[in-house]
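Question:
When you can, review this sequence-structure pair and walk me through the tokens.
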Amino acid sequence: RMAVEVVLALPDRQQVYRVELGQGASVMQAIEASGVLLDAPGLVIDPDRLGIFARRVRPDDTLHDGDRVEIYRPLLLDPKDARRRRAGVQHPHREALVRQQQRQQPASHAAADDQNIGVQ
């Protein structure tokens, strides 16, 4: 026999189930034996969203003693899209900071900047 954990991360908590299975049991057998499907009505197991210690696995992969089967939720927002959105949003005070820096800049620097000449 071997002991494994099945973990489901919910938005507000993490559910951990400990199960004992026979040698050679699969990821899906552990999920079924855990009872997670009964505790989370409507949960659909996406075969592409399963892992063992953050390493992606298939439902039919064989488990080893001490494995931690993780059931991942779908992303609400793609991380790349989130970064793009943040990059596109201007800091609310950015324009005021730029104007303030321009007012504090010495006149000789401002004139050189206007003529596109570097002043050091």
Notes: The first helix runs from residue 27 to 34. The longest strand covers residues 2-9.
